[in-house]
Write a structure and sequence with these properties.
Chain A is an alpha/beta fold and 307 residues long. Chain A has twelve helices and ten strands. In chain A, a hairpin with a 2-residue loop joins strand 1 and strand 2. Chain A is globular. Chain A starts with 7 loop residues before the first helix and ends with a helix. The chains are: A alpha/beta (307), B mainly alpha (329). Chain B: This is Branched-chain amino acid ABC transporter permease.
């Protein structure tokens, strides 16, 4: 079978999703993240209203939806950067609602940002070192005695150099991160997130502002995360990328999950097409309506040409 | 023109107690603003706490001098905690507003009539530095390099203790800023959400920076009180804070030697210009201003100098332009 030529992680993910019903809120065999009734309101606007959603462990899950669908807000809730008004969610079976952002990251759920947050006034290697967890020298008093943290710092540096090499940033090791290109910053941000050995990597628009030449390399790195046993949840607008790398796609519109499924079938789902194309908002509903709109347009054109 | 007098005053100010006080105030600001990006506009309040802690403990309550030192350090830390708890979760500007108000509250409390039995009102307090000068190892006499530098034995004792404090504070910061702890602070200065997403407790680090900077500021208050053997509330007004910022920016923010050299250069220039102008007016070399106007002109020159500095060299003497937090475009 052709499945044998696939990398192990991809094959396992495909197997897990095999025969799963493509409907919103479908249960997964081994969920790493389970979300229930998460609601976030801004004044009168309900930005997020997710009834139930599960993210399969070891898979690459895409979260798509038109602008304003609440994807980034939903991301912010899950990672503790914003407080949900209602709802619960569990990560590895542990309740995570109300947990502050830094604790979420320590638990193994690390995110990146839509607008890249490479720390441009630190060097690339310092950015990487910052990503490592439970550093002894990050305590003020222990930090004063280099002997207490030097050993760990060397280990962290070795690990960072390893990752930089993998992400082809090793030549930039001692440059300020501010001197990197947009795509390199995305790579650095992803590599830095990996310094903390996360179980779930959450990428907010990893392809936004990336030079096409770097796109393939970034895609390769995301796929590689799955091979290394990590789970990935990402928000993306680039449909080619979604089709290329994701095992499962969750579609949000107006704050709700409207569809779920494998990439190929979900994109032909009528609800999804409607959500993206604006659900016939401007399309004429009847033959008379169409006639009237045509006349209006012609009148408009005539007026312009006489002026 | 008496050039010897002008140079002697300027050099003495450059290494004297003013330079120490402002160096300590600016080192504290350097932790908060230079490295962490916190806008503390109430550093004068931390100096006031240090100064009044010694004065009140000894002069009002007749308790030992070192107890006053301990109380000063403790109160500075408590003040930082009180200011930080409500404001550090909010945007940076709120801390600036709260600290500038808190420093004024401290000053208004110690100068109030109702509490003048404790704090001495607008006259302040005296007669608390006896046990400090009893420890003076320098026998009476003149010290220095005549004719430029000359200090009496009391000043020598203040200068020794003061510069040792500056050295200790700077050394501790040097070690801290090289450590992973310092790396977290510098990262927070740039983007605290990024640091949060990497699993660091940003609130705790900002609080630590606020407390450490405030405690170092209170050391400046100790030297301020002891060098003058008196405390007066109006010396701890907001100009002290803004002079300290000038010193920090002149020397270079986020550099260990920045506040020290900044303070020395600042006082050297300030006194050189002030004494020089006074001398020129008295000797008839300048006729269009009077001696009484020299002080005001000196202040204008500080303002002008700070503006020029921010426009043409925002990184100060030592700073690295690529990593400064002040952006003057």
């Amino acid at each position: 079978m052709h499945a044998e030529s696939l990398p192990a992680g991809k094959a396992a993910a495909l197997k897990a999703f095999e025969g799963m019903a493509a409907e919103p809120g479908v249960p997964k065999p081994d969920p790493i993240l389970v979300v229930d009734n998460v609601v976030r309101r801004f004044g009168g606007l309900t930005a997020v209203n997710v009834k139930h959603v599960e993210i399969q462990r070891g898979s690459i899950t895409a979260l798509i939806g038109p602008n304003g669908a609440g994807k980034t807000t939903f991301f912010n809730q899950l990672t503790g950067f914003d407080t949900a008004d209602e709802g619960q969610w569990t990560f590895n079976g542990q309740a995570m609602n109300g947990v502050s952002a830094y604790k979420v990251a320590r638990q193994g759920m690390v995110r990146t940002f839509q607008l890249t947050k490479a720390l441009s006034k630190l060097t690339v290697i310092e950015n990487m070192r910052l990503g490592a967890q439970s550093q002894k020298g990050e305590n003020f008093f222990r930090g004063l005695i280099p002997g207490l943290w030097r050993g760990q710092e060397d280990e962290i540096t070795a690990k960072a150099e390893d990752l930089l090499q993998r992400f082809k940033l090793d030549a930039k090791r001692d440059d300020f991160a501010g001197s990197l290109s947009g795509g390199q910053r995305k790579l650095l941000e992803m590599a830095r997130a990996l310094m903390g050995d996360p179980q779930l990597v959450m990428l907010d628009e990893p392809m936004a502002g990336v030079n096409p030449a770097l796109t393939q390399s970034l895609l390769g790195h995301v796929k590689n995360l799955r091979e290394l046993g990590m789970s990935v949840l990402f928000v993306e607008h680039d449909m080619d990328m979604v089709r290329d790398i994701s095992d499962w796609v969750i579609v949000m519109a107006q704050g709700e999950v409207i569809a779920e499924g494998p990439p190929d079938s979900v994109m032909s789902d009528e609800r999804v097409v409607d959500a993206y194309l604006g659900a016939h908002h401007d399309a004429p509903l009847s033959a008379e309506e169409e006639e009237r709109q045509l006349h209006e347009a012609e009148a408009e054109l005539d007026k312009e040409s006489t002026e | 023109m008496d050039w010897t007098l002008i140079f002697s005053r300027a050099v003495e100010a450059g290494i004297g107690s003013e330079a120490i006080i402002y160096a300590l105030a600016a080192i504290g600001l350097n932790v908060q603003f230079g490295y962490t990006g916190l806008l503390n506009f109430g550093q004068a309040g931390f100096l006031a706490i240090g100064a009044y802690a010694i004065a009140v403990t000894v002069a009002t309550f007749g308790l030992p001098f070192f107890l006053g030192v301990g109380i000063g350090l403790l109160l500075a830390a408590v003040m930082a905690l009180l200011l930080g708890i409500p404001t550090l979760r909010l945007r940076a500007d709120y801390l600036a507003i709260v600290t500038i108000a808190a420093a004024e509250i401290v000053r208004l409390v110690v100068r109030s009539v109702a509490l003048s039995d404790t704090f001495g009102g607008t006259d302040g307090l005296q007669a608390f530095s006896g046990s400090f000068y009893d420890m003076n190892p320098y026998p009476p006499g003149e010290y220095g390099i005549p004719p430029i530098i000359g200090f009496d034995n009391r000043s020598m004792w203040v200068l020794t203790v003061g510069w040792v404090l500056v050295a200790i504070a700077s050394f501790i910061l040097f070690m801290a800023m090289k450590s992973p702890w310092g790396r977290v602070l510098k990262a927070i200065r740039e983007d605290e959400d990024a640091v949060r997403s990497l699993g660091k407790n940003v609130f705790s680090y900002k609080m630590q920076a606020l407390v450490i900077g405030g405690v170092i500021g209170s050391l400046g208050g100790f030297i301020f009180a002891l060098s003058r053997s008196a405390v007066q509330p109006d010396l701890y007004s907001t100009d002290l804070t803004f002079y300290a910022y000038t010193v920090l920016i002149l020397g270079g923010a986020a550099r260990i030697l920045g506040p020290i050299v900044g303070s020395m250069v600042f006082w050297l220039l300030l006194i050189f210009i002030g004494t020089g102008l006074e001398n020129a007016v008295n000797s008839g070399a300048i006729t269009f201003i009077t001696v009484n106007q020299v002080g005001a002109i000196r202040l204008m020159l500080v303002g002008l100098g700070l503006m020029l500095l921010l426009i043409y060299r925002p990184q100060g003497i030592f700073g690295d332009k690529r990593e400064i937090s002040i952006d003057a475009r």
